[in-house]
Each structure stands twice: as C-alpha cells, then as structure tokens.
Amino acid sequence: MTAETPPFTITTLVTGARLDSWLAVGLLVAAALYLYGTHRLRVRGDRWPVGRTIAFLGPGLGTLALVTVSGVGGYDTTLVSVHMIQHMALSMVAPIFLALGAPVTLALRTLPARPRRTLLAVLHSRVAAVLAFPLTAFAVFIANPFALYFTSLYEQTLRHEWLHEVMHAHFILTGCLFFWPLLGRDPLPGRWPYPARALLMVLSVPFHTVLGLTIMQSKTLLGGDWYPSLGLSWVDPWDDQVTAGGVLWAGGEIVSVTMLAILVAQWIRQSRQEAARIDRQLDREDAARAAAEATAVQVTDDGAPHDHKITAPLRMSA
To answer: Distance (Å, rounded) from C-alpha 38 to C-alpha 22?
Structure first.
C-alpha cells in the first residue's frame, strides 16, 4: 500500500477481492465437500436439516470469504480497524455458524467405514479431549489477542505475508475450539451441561471489553511504525486505532449476546425434547402396567373356582 491507495469504501470492498489465496481455495473445497455429503444423504434417502446447511455455507463459510478474499482482506494490513473487523469475524462470528452446521456429524454419516473409524478414533483421543475441554479452549481464546497485540508478534504478521496467513488460520482454529464445545452439534468428548456453558460465555465478555478499551487508550501504536510508514493521507493511524478498539469492544458485546441467545435457544429445545422423551417413557410404562393388570384380571376370571349354589331336588307330593 502507498499514499496513492484509495480509501476503504464499498467500491474497494468489491474491486479489492483476491481469489488466488489459499483461503479462497480452502473455502471452495470445504463448501464442495459439505454439499457432496448432503447429496449422498439425499441419494440414500436420509434427511439432513436445511438449517445446518444454510448456517455452514452462509454465515459460516460466507463470513470467512467476506473478510479474507474480498476488499476487507486487501486492507487488513492497511487499516488496523479493518483488521479488527476481520479478527472478530474469523475468531467469533464464522466459528459459531460452522459449529451449528455440524460438519463432523455429516462426515460420520457419509464417510466409508475405515475413514469413519479413523475420525472416531481422533474424536475420542486424549488430544481431542484436552483441546475440546472448555477451560482449555477458553484460556487460549482469551490469551490469544493479548499475546498478539501487546508484543512484537503483530508487527511481524504485517511484515511477513506467510505469518499473516498463519495468523488467519490461527484465529479460525481458536474460535472453533472455543465455540464447538459450547454451541456445536457434533459429538465431542466431555461436553459440559448448558448452565456451565452459559457461565463460560458470560465470563468471556469482560476480556473483550478490557482489550478494546486498552487498545483505545494505548499510547503506543499497534504494529510499531508500520501504519505511519504507509503514508496514507486519508487516515490518521491514531484515530484508526481508537476505531479499532471500539470495534473490538462493541463487536465483542454483540457477539456475546448472540452466543447466549443461541445457547439459550438450544437449552430450551433440549429441555422440551427431554420432557417429551420422559412423557413418552411414562406413557409406555402406564400402558405396560395397564396391560399387566388386564392380563391378571383375565387369568383370575378363567382359572379361579366358581361358587355354585346347590339346591335340593323338588319332591312331588302324593
């Protein structure tokens, strides 16, 4: 980027698109594999919820594409505010909907026997148990941005494109590790009950608020002298950093409320399903008890001796 770089607008959002990145290829492959899995289920006569497909392809993969291969990705090393939008989308927005799409469940239902056994072995491994443990994912999710923005690591991601791409992948991975055990529908080891999940989500809110406010009030520019060295006449790096902190602060609040709403909806749905299951079980037990009582009455009527009254024969008088 140079001083002649145009300001970030809706037009540059489209014209700055890059379709030659590894993320673009990865997104296309992921969408194709998911659609192929749903197609195999339909051919087999099985049903796959449409809502899961929409969640995975639309706000899931679609959000990843919007902030990486569009003009957002083209300006993520030019404006720290754009980078923060990208950060929020990669680590907090897209992973929620990827988890709701249940791609692991889809894979387990469509893969051949040997790959399915391999996937199940991975899911039940100790490594998966540690990574999927909510407190582990919570610690990584919270510590990540502090370690990135308040060390020299962030400046290095701006100066080295390969490290910048690794950072994108890391955002996606840590977001999935955090949200999959809390909101996902896939089978994972050691999944917590809903009250504990809700508590963990609530605890994550203050950290984003603190991070956003710290960035807004910081007397040091993120990325060192990278942004001033671009010489962009249409933006002040200090003002842009304040905007970036506000994006992180407000975005964290919005996403947290969205997470809690989805979690509460899942909680209510599970409670209703559990209540319906208990009702069906009680109905079956009542029916079995009634059938047993009817059988007992029938046996009594057929096998017990009857009490007949014996009368003397009538005598004819002479």
So the answer is: 25
Q: Over the stretch 176-213, which tens digit does the pLDDT of each residue have?
A: 999 998 888 888 877 888 888 888 888 888 888 899 99
Apex CA 90: angle with CA 249 and CA 250, to 5°? 15
Q: Which of 189, 18, 201 is nearest to 120 (CA)?
A: 189
Q: pTM for the whole thing?
A: 0.82
- CA-based diameter of the chain, in Å? 145
DSSP 16: T
The position carrying tokens 């749905």 is 269
Integer Cα distance of 161 and 20 in angstroms? 14
Confidence of residue 315 (pLDDT cuts 50, 70, 90): very low
**Signed CA dihedral, 93, 98, 99, 101: sign only:** positive
Contact 175, 94 (CB under 8 A): yes
Residue 38 C-alpha from the chain's centroid: 19
